[in-house]
Design goal:
By secondary structure, the chain is mostly helical. Helix content is 81%, strand content 0%. The radius of gyration is 20 Å and the shape is globular.
């Protein structure tokens, strides 16, 4: 098999891994009510417990990059998926809150490790492939997220017990990762891809293991702002629609659904868009469109315009993070194995801690003002990236 055929095979395989990650992570969401009832938690205690998942993800992201660099990202991805598959059924049966917190930390750590390894692998496949694939990779993650959030409930509707449904999803994850494992780049192929890409760079630009550079921190800050907008939709869109637009509680999730479908659709189409336009135009126009969507949602009094605003936010924000991660893999002075974990970690801090910041603003002012603040951050991303001369 020639190099091009191997690269095409690897691109299909890494797409499957992104789908697996989205499916595994989102399968936890339908389990939350079961955990709350089983452990007899109030909302405050549940919130503290849920933080353990984010803490595990953030703590392992930098380590995941080191492991991927040392052992090869496909080995790390395989181990991470196996841990995720093992933990999913356990999350439905653990009875003690302390053990549940520990299990969520391990689950989150596996998710964070997988996220870093699959993004690093995707960048190397993209560099060798010679055309953008990162948007479609993140699009398949979003598709996996939609399938996972619905899949557990669908299996239970078919008559399966929750634990059997969770085991079924876990088995599916294991089958996919073993099926695609051999098609992923091994460690030597990854190293060769990195060396091939380095030959295209200017002479004398040796890759460094030092991450505290202006370019890495800049991309991380940009990811922080965009991930914050995604976290705002996940945690606050239903509250906003219920309390500020009068929608029934049972239908309040429609806002996040509209946002998610728009984002997944745009990411699946995003590679052609990035190839046709340069990345700077994608980031600037996308940020401005996302900000306009947020302002439309909070500044008009109608439900239909709020939903339209969430759709515009999903369309605009969809391809920004894939562009940033691709840029992190092409930095002249920092290794991708170092830069990508740092950039994604800073971004996920925005997704996890950002909604808490918005809650503080909403408590002292109002939720529409808090969401409007997110729109201002997106405008700042557009301005900063438009004036940045180079990454």
């Amino acid at each position: 098999m020639g190099t091009h055929e191997k690269t095409v095979g690897a691109s299909k395989a890494i797409k499957a891994i992104f789908l697996v990650c989205g499916l595994g992570v989102s399968s936890w969401a339908p389990m939350v009510p079961f955990a709350k009832d089983r452990l007899q938690l109030n909302d405050a205690n549940l919130g503290v417990l849920l933080l353990m998942l984010g803490a595990g993800a953030i703590s392992m992201m930098p380590i995941g990059g080191v492991l991927a660099n040392r052992y090869g990202s496909r080995v790390v991805m395989l181990c991470a998926v196996l841990v995720i598959a093992l933990m999913l059924p356990l999350l439905l049966i653990i009875n003690g809150p302390i053990l549940m917190g520990a299990a969520l930390f391990v689950f989150g750590a596996a998710v964070g490790t997988l996220d870093v390894a699959m993004n690093a692998h995707g960048v190397q496949v993209q560099n060798r492939y010679g055309k953008p694939i990162m948007s479609s990779l993140h699009g398949l993650f979003s598709v996996g997220g939609l399938l996972g959030s619905l899949g557990l409930g669908f299996l239970m509707k078919l008559g399966l017990e929750p634990i059997v449904a969770a085991i079924s999803i876990a088995v599916l994850l294991i089958i996919i990762v073993f099926w695609k494992y051999s098609a992923l780049f091994d460690r030597l192929t990854e190293k060769a891809a990195i060396q091939e890409f380095s030959l295209t760079q200017e002479p004398g630009t040796a890759k460094s293991a030092f991450w505290l550079t202006g370019s890495v921190l800049f991309l991380g800050a940009m990811c922080f702002a965009v991930f914050l907008s995604e976290g705002a939709m996940l945690d606050w869109s239903a509250v906003f629609l219920r309390e500020n637009r009068g929608i029934e509680e049972e239908l309040a999730g429609i806002g996040y659904a509209a946002f998610s479908v728009a984002m997944a659709t745009m990411r699946l189409l995003g590679d052609k868009l990035v190839a046709r336009l340069d990345s700077r135009k994608v980031v600037v126009s996308g940020s401005l469109l996302a900000a306009a969507g947020l302002f439309l949602a909070v500044c008009t009094p109608w439900l239909i315009t709020a939903l339209l605003g969430f759709v515009l936010l999903g369309l605009g924000a969809a391809n920004i993070v894939p562009v940033f991660i691709s840029a992190g893999g092409r930095l002249k002075d920092v290794s991708a194995a170092v830069a990508i974990p740092v950039i994604t970690t800073i971004g996920y801090i925005g997704q996890l801690a950002g909604p808490a910041i918005l809650g503080f603003i909403a408590h002292h002012y109002s939720l529409p003002i808090a969401l409007g603040f997110t729109g201002i951050l997106l405008i700042a991303v557009a301005v900063a990236f438009s004036v940045k001369k180079s990454i």
